[in-house]
Amino acid sequence: MTRLFSLLALALSAAAAGGERPNVLFLFADDLAFDAVLPGEHDGVDTPHLDRLAERGVVFTRAYNPGSWTGAVCVPSRTMLNTGRFLWDAHEIHEGDRSGFQEKNLWSNRLRRAGYHTFFAGKWHLPFDPHEAFDTVGTVRPGMPPTVESAYNRPPAEGPDPWRSDDRSLGGFWQGGRHWSEVLADEAVEYLGGAARRERPFFLQVAFNAPHDPRQAPTECLERYPLDRVATPEPFAAEYPYNEAIGCGRTHRDERLGPFPRTEHAVRVHRREYHALITHTDEQVGRVLEALVHSGEADDTWVVFTADHGLAVGRHGLMGKQNLYDHSVRVPLIVVGPGVPAGERRDQPVYLQSVNPTTLELAGAPALPGDAFPSLLPLVGDPDRRSEHEAIYGAYRELQRSVTRDGWKLIAYPAVPTVRLYHVAEDPRETRDLADEPEQSDRVRSLFAVLLRLQARYDDPAPLAEAFPDLAPAGGAPSVRR
Protein backbone atom coordinates (compact mmCIF):
# COMPACT_ATOMS: atom_id res chain seq x y z
CA MET A 1 0.00 0.00 0.00
CA THR A 2 2.83 2.40 0.85
CA ARG A 3 4.38 1.75 -2.55
CA LEU A 4 1.03 2.55 -4.20
CA PHE A 5 0.84 5.91 -2.47
CA SER A 6 4.48 6.64 -3.27
CA LEU A 7 3.75 6.01 -6.93
CA LEU A 8 0.79 8.38 -6.68
CA ALA A 9 3.03 11.08 -5.23
CA LEU A 10 5.52 10.59 -8.04
CA ALA A 11 2.71 10.74 -10.59
CA LEU A 12 1.44 14.04 -9.17
CA SER A 13 4.89 15.60 -9.35
CA ALA A 14 5.58 14.17 -12.79
CA ALA A 15 2.34 15.57 -14.15
CA ALA A 16 3.35 19.03 -13.02
CA ALA A 17 6.88 18.70 -14.36
CA GLY A 18 5.60 17.35 -17.68
CA GLY A 19 3.55 20.43 -18.47
CA GLU A 20 0.11 19.06 -17.61
CA ARG A 21 -0.82 22.17 -15.73
CA PRO A 22 -4.17 22.04 -13.94
CA ASN A 23 -6.34 25.00 -13.08
CA VAL A 24 -6.21 26.16 -9.47
CA LEU A 25 -9.22 27.44 -7.54
CA PHE A 26 -8.11 28.85 -4.20
CA LEU A 27 -10.87 29.63 -1.69
CA PHE A 28 -9.61 31.58 1.31
CA ALA A 29 -11.56 32.45 4.46
CA ASP A 30 -10.73 34.83 7.30
CA ASP A 31 -10.95 34.04 11.04
CA LEU A 32 -12.15 30.48 10.44
CA ALA A 33 -11.22 28.05 13.24
CA PHE A 34 -10.27 24.53 12.23
CA ASP A 35 -12.99 22.82 14.25
CA ALA A 36 -15.80 24.84 12.68
CA VAL A 37 -15.58 22.82 9.47
CA LEU A 38 -13.10 19.99 10.02
CA PRO A 39 -14.89 16.69 9.34
CA GLY A 40 -15.19 14.66 12.53
CA GLU A 41 -14.62 17.71 14.75
CA HIS A 42 -17.58 19.88 13.79
CA ASP A 43 -18.39 22.56 16.34
CA GLY A 44 -22.11 22.41 15.57
CA VAL A 45 -21.91 24.37 12.32
CA ASP A 46 -23.75 23.52 9.09
CA THR A 47 -21.27 23.45 6.19
CA PRO A 48 -22.68 20.93 3.70
CA HIS A 49 -20.71 22.22 0.70
CA LEU A 50 -17.37 22.09 2.49
CA ASP A 51 -18.28 18.68 3.90
CA ARG A 52 -18.82 17.38 0.36
CA LEU A 53 -15.60 19.01 -0.80
CA ALA A 54 -13.72 17.24 2.00
CA GLU A 55 -15.23 13.91 0.93
CA ARG A 56 -13.71 14.41 -2.53
CA GLY A 57 -10.14 14.97 -1.42
CA VAL A 58 -7.55 15.12 1.34
CA VAL A 59 -8.12 16.99 4.59
CA PHE A 60 -5.06 18.20 6.49
CA THR A 61 -6.18 18.04 10.10
CA ARG A 62 -3.18 19.81 11.62
CA ALA A 63 -2.60 22.88 9.48
CA TYR A 64 -1.18 25.91 11.29
CA ASN A 65 -0.44 29.58 10.83
CA PRO A 66 3.05 30.38 12.21
CA GLY A 67 1.91 33.55 13.91
CA SER A 68 2.01 37.32 13.71
CA TRP A 69 4.05 40.44 14.38
CA THR A 70 0.87 42.52 14.75
CA GLY A 71 -2.66 42.39 16.15
CA ALA A 72 -3.97 42.08 12.60
CA VAL A 73 -2.92 38.43 12.36
CA CYS A 74 -4.26 38.13 8.83
CA VAL A 75 -1.56 40.49 7.52
CA PRO A 76 1.44 38.26 8.34
CA SER A 77 -0.47 35.14 7.32
CA ARG A 78 -1.25 36.57 3.89
CA THR A 79 2.22 38.07 3.50
CA MET A 80 3.77 34.66 4.12
CA LEU A 81 1.30 33.01 1.76
CA ASN A 82 1.94 35.40 -1.12
CA THR A 83 5.71 35.80 -0.71
CA GLY A 84 6.56 32.24 0.30
CA ARG A 85 8.75 33.57 3.14
CA PHE A 86 8.57 32.56 6.80
CA LEU A 87 7.29 34.92 9.48
CA TRP A 88 10.26 37.16 10.30
CA ASP A 89 11.56 37.30 6.72
CA ALA A 90 8.02 38.18 5.62
CA HIS A 91 7.96 40.88 8.29
CA GLU A 92 10.94 42.62 6.71
CA ILE A 93 9.29 42.44 3.29
CA HIS A 94 6.00 43.82 4.59
CA GLU A 95 7.57 46.66 6.54
CA GLY A 96 9.41 48.03 3.53
CA ASP A 97 12.85 46.43 3.32
CA ARG A 98 12.24 44.56 0.09
CA SER A 99 15.83 44.57 -1.12
CA GLY A 100 15.86 40.77 -1.12
CA PHE A 101 12.41 40.39 -2.62
CA GLN A 102 11.03 41.49 -5.95
CA GLU A 103 7.32 42.02 -6.51
CA LYS A 104 7.55 39.79 -9.57
CA ASN A 105 8.18 36.92 -7.16
CA LEU A 106 4.76 37.14 -5.56
CA TRP A 107 2.89 33.83 -5.73
CA SER A 108 0.48 35.00 -8.44
CA ASN A 109 3.22 36.52 -10.60
CA ARG A 110 5.19 33.29 -10.50
CA LEU A 111 2.10 31.46 -11.71
CA ARG A 112 1.66 34.06 -14.46
CA ARG A 113 5.20 33.37 -15.65
CA ALA A 114 4.35 29.67 -15.65
CA GLY A 115 1.55 30.35 -18.12
CA TYR A 116 -1.49 30.94 -15.91
CA HIS A 117 -4.23 33.50 -16.26
CA THR A 118 -4.67 34.88 -12.75
CA PHE A 119 -7.74 36.41 -11.10
CA PHE A 120 -8.28 37.86 -7.65
CA ALA A 121 -11.30 39.10 -5.74
CA GLY A 122 -11.69 39.82 -2.04
CA LYS A 123 -9.55 40.71 0.95
CA TRP A 124 -6.01 41.63 -0.08
CA HIS A 125 -4.47 43.49 2.92
CA LEU A 126 -0.92 43.46 1.53
CA PRO A 127 1.58 46.22 0.66
CA PHE A 128 1.47 45.30 -3.03
CA ASP A 129 -0.85 46.47 -5.78
CA PRO A 130 -3.13 43.54 -6.68
CA HIS A 131 -3.50 44.97 -10.19
CA GLU A 132 0.24 44.42 -10.65
CA ALA A 133 0.00 40.91 -9.24
CA PHE A 134 -2.98 39.50 -11.18
CA ASP A 135 -4.17 39.61 -14.78
CA THR A 136 -7.74 40.36 -13.72
CA VAL A 137 -8.92 41.88 -10.45
CA GLY A 138 -12.48 42.00 -9.20
CA THR A 139 -13.64 43.78 -6.08
CA VAL A 140 -10.80 44.35 -3.62
CA ARG A 141 -11.91 44.58 -0.01
CA PRO A 142 -10.12 46.16 2.96
CA GLY A 143 -8.96 44.24 6.02
CA MET A 144 -12.41 44.19 7.58
CA PRO A 145 -15.78 45.81 6.99
CA PRO A 146 -16.47 49.05 8.86
CA THR A 147 -18.27 48.55 12.15
CA VAL A 148 -20.25 50.74 14.51
CA GLU A 149 -19.84 51.12 18.26
CA SER A 150 -23.00 49.12 18.94
CA ALA A 151 -21.14 46.02 17.68
CA TYR A 152 -18.88 46.11 20.76
CA ASN A 153 -19.30 45.21 24.44
CA ARG A 154 -22.41 43.21 23.74
CA PRO A 155 -24.82 41.65 24.42
CA PRO A 156 -25.63 43.62 27.58
CA ALA A 157 -26.41 41.79 30.80
CA GLU A 158 -29.82 43.45 30.88
CA GLY A 159 -32.00 45.20 28.34
CA PRO A 160 -32.16 44.92 24.54
CA ASP A 161 -29.12 44.11 22.44
CA PRO A 162 -28.24 47.18 20.32
CA TRP A 163 -26.89 44.98 17.53
CA ARG A 164 -28.52 42.52 15.16
CA SER A 165 -26.37 40.88 12.55
CA ASP A 166 -29.06 40.77 9.87
CA ASP A 167 -29.82 44.50 10.21
CA ARG A 168 -28.62 45.80 6.85
CA SER A 169 -28.84 49.41 7.99
CA LEU A 170 -25.75 48.87 10.16
CA GLY A 171 -23.45 48.57 7.16
CA GLY A 172 -20.47 46.28 7.66
CA PHE A 173 -20.79 43.30 5.36
CA TRP A 174 -24.03 44.83 4.09
CA GLN A 175 -22.29 48.02 2.94
CA GLY A 176 -23.16 48.59 -0.70
CA GLY A 177 -26.47 46.73 -0.48
CA ARG A 178 -25.25 43.17 -1.07
CA HIS A 179 -23.34 40.99 1.37
CA TRP A 180 -19.63 41.09 0.62
CA SER A 181 -19.36 37.30 0.45
CA GLU A 182 -22.10 37.21 -2.17
CA VAL A 183 -20.35 39.90 -4.23
CA LEU A 184 -17.15 37.85 -4.30
CA ALA A 185 -18.99 34.65 -5.18
CA ASP A 186 -20.80 36.51 -7.98
CA GLU A 187 -17.48 37.60 -9.48
CA ALA A 188 -15.97 34.11 -9.20
CA VAL A 189 -19.02 32.59 -10.84
CA GLU A 190 -18.79 35.11 -13.68
CA TYR A 191 -15.09 34.38 -14.16
CA LEU A 192 -15.66 30.63 -14.26
CA GLY A 193 -18.38 31.15 -16.84
CA GLY A 194 -15.68 32.09 -19.35
CA ALA A 195 -13.00 29.67 -18.15
CA ALA A 196 -13.46 27.15 -20.97
CA ARG A 197 -12.83 29.86 -23.58
CA ARG A 198 -9.38 30.74 -22.22
CA GLU A 199 -6.31 29.13 -23.71
CA ARG A 200 -4.31 29.33 -20.48
CA PRO A 201 -5.03 27.44 -17.25
CA PHE A 202 -6.39 29.71 -14.54
CA PHE A 203 -5.45 30.60 -11.00
CA LEU A 204 -8.56 31.96 -9.31
CA GLN A 205 -8.20 33.31 -5.77
CA VAL A 206 -11.39 34.17 -3.89
CA ALA A 207 -10.49 35.71 -0.52
CA PHE A 208 -13.59 36.01 1.64
CA ASN A 209 -13.55 38.50 4.53
CA ALA A 210 -15.98 36.23 6.35
CA PRO A 211 -16.32 34.95 9.00
CA HIS A 212 -14.34 37.92 10.39
CA ASP A 213 -16.43 40.29 12.45
CA PRO A 214 -18.78 42.09 12.21
CA ARG A 215 -20.51 38.71 12.26
CA GLN A 216 -23.35 39.54 9.88
CA ALA A 217 -25.40 37.01 7.98
CA PRO A 218 -28.89 36.83 6.46
CA THR A 219 -31.86 36.12 8.70
CA GLU A 220 -32.31 32.60 7.38
CA CYS A 221 -28.77 31.71 8.45
CA LEU A 222 -29.26 33.18 11.93
CA GLU A 223 -32.50 31.27 12.37
CA ARG A 224 -30.66 27.99 11.91
CA TYR A 225 -28.91 28.62 15.23
CA PRO A 226 -31.33 29.28 18.06
CA LEU A 227 -29.39 29.83 21.27
CA ASP A 228 -30.40 26.45 22.66
CA ARG A 229 -28.51 24.86 19.77
CA VAL A 230 -25.27 26.75 20.51
CA ALA A 231 -23.10 25.20 23.21
CA THR A 232 -20.83 27.05 25.60
CA PRO A 233 -17.33 26.34 24.30
CA GLU A 234 -14.61 24.55 26.26
CA PRO A 235 -12.78 25.82 28.11
CA PHE A 236 -14.99 28.70 29.19
CA ALA A 237 -13.45 31.42 31.37
CA ALA A 238 -14.67 34.80 32.56
CA GLU A 239 -11.29 36.29 31.60
CA TYR A 240 -7.89 34.98 30.56
CA PRO A 241 -5.45 35.35 33.47
CA TYR A 242 -2.56 36.81 31.44
CA ASN A 243 -4.50 38.73 28.81
CA GLU A 244 -3.00 42.15 29.51
CA ALA A 245 0.60 40.93 29.57
CA ILE A 246 0.31 38.92 26.34
CA GLY A 247 -1.28 41.60 24.17
CA CYS A 248 -4.98 40.71 24.18
CA GLY A 249 -6.32 42.70 27.11
CA ARG A 250 -9.54 44.54 27.74
CA THR A 251 -8.73 47.44 25.42
CA HIS A 252 -7.80 45.28 22.44
CA ARG A 253 -10.29 45.71 19.59
CA ASP A 254 -11.11 42.02 19.12
CA GLU A 255 -11.54 41.48 22.84
CA ARG A 256 -13.89 44.48 23.20
CA LEU A 257 -16.49 42.74 21.05
CA GLY A 258 -17.77 40.88 24.12
CA PRO A 259 -18.39 42.20 27.63
CA PHE A 260 -16.09 41.71 30.63
CA PRO A 261 -16.30 39.53 32.57
CA ARG A 262 -17.34 36.99 29.94
CA THR A 263 -20.68 35.31 30.50
CA GLU A 264 -21.83 32.06 28.98
CA HIS A 265 -24.83 33.84 27.47
CA ALA A 266 -22.71 36.51 25.78
CA VAL A 267 -20.30 33.95 24.37
CA ARG A 268 -23.15 31.85 22.99
CA VAL A 269 -24.68 34.92 21.32
CA HIS A 270 -21.36 35.66 19.57
CA ARG A 271 -20.91 32.02 18.61
CA ARG A 272 -24.43 31.93 17.19
CA GLU A 273 -23.58 34.81 14.88
CA TYR A 274 -20.20 33.27 14.05
CA HIS A 275 -21.84 29.99 13.08
CA ALA A 276 -24.45 31.78 10.97
CA LEU A 277 -21.75 33.66 9.05
CA ILE A 278 -19.79 30.46 8.49
CA THR A 279 -22.89 28.78 7.07
CA HIS A 280 -23.46 31.76 4.79
CA THR A 281 -19.84 31.55 3.62
CA ASP A 282 -20.33 27.84 2.96
CA GLU A 283 -23.30 28.69 0.75
CA GLN A 284 -21.15 31.04 -1.32
CA VAL A 285 -18.42 28.40 -1.61
CA GLY A 286 -21.13 26.04 -2.87
CA ARG A 287 -22.10 28.54 -5.57
CA VAL A 288 -18.51 28.82 -6.75
CA LEU A 289 -18.03 25.04 -6.80
CA GLU A 290 -21.25 24.61 -8.77
CA ALA A 291 -20.03 27.18 -11.31
CA LEU A 292 -16.78 25.23 -11.63
CA VAL A 293 -18.75 22.11 -12.54
CA HIS A 294 -20.84 24.04 -15.07
CA SER A 295 -17.69 25.48 -16.62
CA GLY A 296 -16.61 22.01 -17.72
CA GLU A 297 -13.21 22.55 -16.05
CA ALA A 298 -13.79 20.68 -12.78
CA ASP A 299 -11.91 17.54 -13.84
CA ASP A 300 -8.83 19.62 -14.63
CA THR A 301 -8.90 21.82 -11.54
CA TRP A 302 -7.29 21.64 -8.13
CA VAL A 303 -9.47 23.17 -5.43
CA VAL A 304 -7.88 24.31 -2.18
CA PHE A 305 -9.85 25.67 0.76
CA THR A 306 -8.25 27.12 3.88
CA ALA A 307 -8.19 30.19 6.13
CA ASP A 308 -5.54 32.62 7.33
CA HIS A 309 -5.95 31.70 11.03
CA GLY A 310 -8.61 30.69 13.53
CA LEU A 311 -10.51 32.55 16.25
CA ALA A 312 -11.30 32.07 19.95
CA VAL A 313 -14.91 33.39 20.08
CA GLY A 314 -15.15 32.86 23.84
CA ARG A 315 -12.73 30.01 24.44
CA HIS A 316 -10.22 30.54 27.26
CA GLY A 317 -11.99 33.83 28.00
CA LEU A 318 -10.74 35.27 24.70
CA MET A 319 -12.63 36.60 21.69
CA GLY A 320 -9.88 37.23 19.12
CA LYS A 321 -7.01 35.43 17.43
CA GLN A 322 -4.11 37.14 19.19
CA ASN A 323 -3.12 33.99 21.04
CA LEU A 324 -1.39 30.67 20.36
CA TYR A 325 -4.11 28.23 21.31
CA ASP A 326 -5.14 25.79 18.61
CA HIS A 327 -8.51 27.46 18.11
CA SER A 328 -6.60 30.51 16.86
CA VAL A 329 -3.56 29.04 15.08
CA ARG A 330 -5.08 25.96 13.41
CA VAL A 331 -7.15 26.19 10.24
CA PRO A 332 -9.12 23.88 7.97
CA LEU A 333 -7.19 22.79 4.88
CA ILE A 334 -8.86 20.78 2.12
CA VAL A 335 -7.16 19.76 -1.14
CA VAL A 336 -9.09 18.28 -4.08
CA GLY A 337 -7.78 17.62 -7.57
CA PRO A 338 -7.00 15.15 -10.35
CA GLY A 339 -5.38 12.08 -8.82
CA VAL A 340 -5.95 13.22 -5.24
CA PRO A 341 -7.37 10.35 -3.13
CA ALA A 342 -10.91 10.96 -1.94
CA GLY A 343 -12.09 11.07 1.64
CA GLU A 344 -8.66 10.83 3.29
CA ARG A 345 -7.03 12.65 6.21
CA ARG A 346 -3.46 13.66 6.78
CA ASP A 347 -2.58 14.21 10.43
CA GLN A 348 1.01 15.31 9.81
CA PRO A 349 1.64 18.91 10.93
CA VAL A 350 1.90 21.46 8.10
CA TYR A 351 1.69 25.21 7.67
CA LEU A 352 -1.18 26.59 5.61
CA GLN A 353 1.32 28.65 3.57
CA SER A 354 2.44 25.41 1.91
CA VAL A 355 -0.46 26.00 -0.46
CA ASN A 356 1.89 28.40 -2.29
CA PRO A 357 4.66 25.90 -3.23
CA THR A 358 2.09 23.16 -3.84
CA THR A 359 0.46 25.11 -6.64
CA LEU A 360 3.81 26.25 -8.00
CA GLU A 361 4.93 22.63 -8.21
CA LEU A 362 1.72 21.74 -10.02
CA ALA A 363 2.44 24.57 -12.43
CA GLY A 364 5.99 23.41 -13.03
CA ALA A 365 7.35 26.72 -11.72
CA PRO A 366 10.92 26.64 -10.40
CA ALA A 367 11.75 27.11 -6.74
CA LEU A 368 13.44 30.34 -5.70
CA PRO A 369 15.96 31.20 -2.96
CA GLY A 370 14.07 32.13 0.17
CA ASP A 371 11.13 29.78 -0.41
CA ALA A 372 10.41 28.63 3.13
CA PHE A 373 7.53 26.18 2.91
CA PRO A 374 7.51 22.67 1.44
CA SER A 375 4.96 21.47 -1.11
CA LEU A 376 2.07 19.37 0.16
CA LEU A 377 2.15 17.03 -2.85
CA PRO A 378 4.33 14.36 -1.19
CA LEU A 379 1.90 14.18 1.75
CA VAL A 380 -1.13 14.20 -0.54
CA GLY A 381 0.29 11.19 -2.34
CA ASP A 382 1.61 9.24 0.65
CA PRO A 383 -0.23 9.11 3.99
CA ASP A 384 2.78 7.52 5.68
CA ARG A 385 5.26 10.20 4.73
CA ARG A 386 6.75 12.16 7.63
CA SER A 387 6.17 15.86 7.95
CA GLU A 388 9.16 18.00 7.05
CA HIS A 389 8.70 20.01 10.23
CA GLU A 390 10.57 19.01 13.38
CA ALA A 391 7.92 20.87 15.35
CA ILE A 392 5.36 23.61 14.81
CA TYR A 393 6.48 27.09 15.81
CA GLY A 394 4.10 29.84 16.92
CA ALA A 395 4.61 33.53 17.68
CA TYR A 396 2.56 36.58 18.55
CA ARG A 397 4.47 39.85 18.56
CA GLU A 398 7.28 39.72 21.14
CA LEU A 399 4.79 38.61 23.79
CA GLN A 400 4.01 34.96 23.06
CA ARG A 401 5.85 31.93 21.69
CA SER A 402 4.83 28.29 21.32
CA VAL A 403 6.13 24.97 20.12
CA THR A 404 4.05 21.89 19.33
CA ARG A 405 5.72 18.51 19.02
CA ASP A 406 4.69 14.87 19.40
CA GLY A 407 1.27 15.72 20.80
CA TRP A 408 2.49 18.32 23.33
CA LYS A 409 2.42 22.11 23.25
CA LEU A 410 4.46 24.57 25.28
CA ILE A 411 3.36 28.22 25.35
CA ALA A 412 5.77 30.84 26.71
CA TYR A 413 4.85 34.34 27.88
CA PRO A 414 8.15 36.26 28.28
CA ALA A 415 6.57 39.38 29.80
CA VAL A 416 4.90 37.46 32.66
CA PRO A 417 7.13 35.34 32.67
CA THR A 418 5.46 31.94 32.69
CA VAL A 419 4.92 28.89 30.53
CA ARG A 420 1.91 26.69 29.93
CA LEU A 421 1.99 23.03 28.90
CA TYR A 422 -0.79 21.07 27.21
CA HIS A 423 -1.01 17.45 26.13
CA VAL A 424 -2.94 18.34 22.99
CA ALA A 425 -3.09 14.73 21.80
CA GLU A 426 -5.27 13.86 24.80
CA ASP A 427 -6.58 17.33 25.62
CA PRO A 428 -7.30 18.90 22.20
CA ARG A 429 -9.27 21.80 23.74
CA GLU A 430 -6.24 22.71 25.85
CA THR A 431 -8.19 22.73 29.09
CA ARG A 432 -5.50 21.48 31.53
CA ASP A 433 -2.23 23.35 32.03
CA LEU A 434 0.35 20.78 33.17
CA ALA A 435 3.39 23.05 33.36
CA ASP A 436 3.59 23.05 37.17
CA GLU A 437 3.35 19.29 37.57
CA PRO A 438 6.73 18.00 38.80
CA GLU A 439 6.67 14.98 36.51
CA GLN A 440 6.51 17.32 33.49
CA SER A 441 9.57 19.41 34.33
CA ASP A 442 11.85 17.52 31.94
CA ARG A 443 9.29 17.80 29.17
CA VAL A 444 9.01 21.56 29.68
CA ARG A 445 12.79 21.91 29.40
CA SER A 446 12.96 19.68 26.34
CA LEU A 447 10.24 21.60 24.51
CA PHE A 448 11.80 24.92 25.48
CA ALA A 449 15.09 23.77 23.96
CA VAL A 450 13.26 22.91 20.72
CA LEU A 451 11.64 26.33 20.78
CA LEU A 452 15.05 28.00 21.09
CA ARG A 453 16.32 26.01 18.10
CA LEU A 454 13.34 27.11 16.03
CA GLN A 455 13.84 30.68 17.16
CA ALA A 456 17.38 30.62 15.82
CA ARG A 457 16.31 28.89 12.60
CA TYR A 458 13.63 31.45 11.85
CA ASP A 459 15.65 34.50 12.92
CA ASP A 460 13.23 35.34 15.72
CA PRO A 461 14.49 38.28 17.83
CA ALA A 462 12.42 37.65 20.98
CA PRO A 463 14.56 37.43 24.17
CA LEU A 464 13.28 34.03 25.22
CA ALA A 465 16.41 32.75 26.91
CA GLU A 466 16.74 35.97 28.92
CA ALA A 467 13.12 35.77 30.06
CA PHE A 468 13.46 32.14 31.18
CA PRO A 469 17.04 31.68 32.43
CA ASP A 470 16.05 28.60 34.45
CA LEU A 471 14.86 26.86 31.28
CA ALA A 472 17.62 27.90 28.90
CA PRO A 473 20.31 25.24 28.30
CA ALA A 474 23.56 25.58 30.21
CA GLY A 475 25.50 26.33 27.04
CA GLY A 476 23.27 29.28 26.19
CA ALA A 477 20.64 29.71 23.53
CA PRO A 478 21.43 29.21 19.85
CA SER A 479 22.44 32.50 18.23
CA VAL A 480 19.90 34.42 16.20
CA ARG A 481 21.26 35.92 12.98
CA ARG A 482 19.37 39.14 13.42
Question: Summary?
Answer:
With 482 residues, the chain is an alpha/beta fold.
Question: Can you characterise this structure?
Answer:
It contains 15 helices and 16 strands. It has 482 residues and is an alpha/beta fold. Strands 6-5-7-1-8-10-2-11 form an 8-stranded mixed sheet, sandwiched between helices. Strands 4-13-14-15-16 form a 5-stranded mixed sheet. The longest helix is centred in the middle third of the chain and has 32 residues, at 264-295. The protein starts with a helix and ends in a 15-residue tail after the last helix. Strand 13 (392-396) and strand 14 form a beta hairpin. Mean pLDDT is 93; it is low at 1-7.
Question: Which key features would you list for this structure?
Answer:
globular, alpha/beta, 5-stranded mixed beta sheet, 16 strands, 482 residues, 30% helix, single chain
Q: How would you write the strand order of the largest sheet? A: 6-5-7-1-8-10-2-11
Largest beta-sheet characterization: 8 strands, mixed
Radius of gyration over all CA atoms, rounded: 22 Å
Shape annotation:
globular
Topology, pairings included?
Elements: H1 2-17, E1 23-29, H2 34-37, H3 48-55, E2 58-60, E3 63-64, E4 67-68, H4 74-83, H5 87-94, H6 107-113, E5 117-123, H7 130-133, E6 136-141, H8 180-193, E7 202-207, H9 219-222, H10 264-295, E8 301-307, H11 326-329, E9 330-331, E10 333-336, E11 344-346, E12 350-351, H12 355-363, H13 377-381, E13 392-396, E14 400-405, E15 408-413, E16 418-422, H14 441-457, H15 464-467
Parallel strand pairs: 1-7, 1-8, 2-11, 3-12, 4-13, 5-6, 5-7
Antiparallel strand pairs: 2-10, 3-9, 8-10, 13-14, 14-15, 15-16
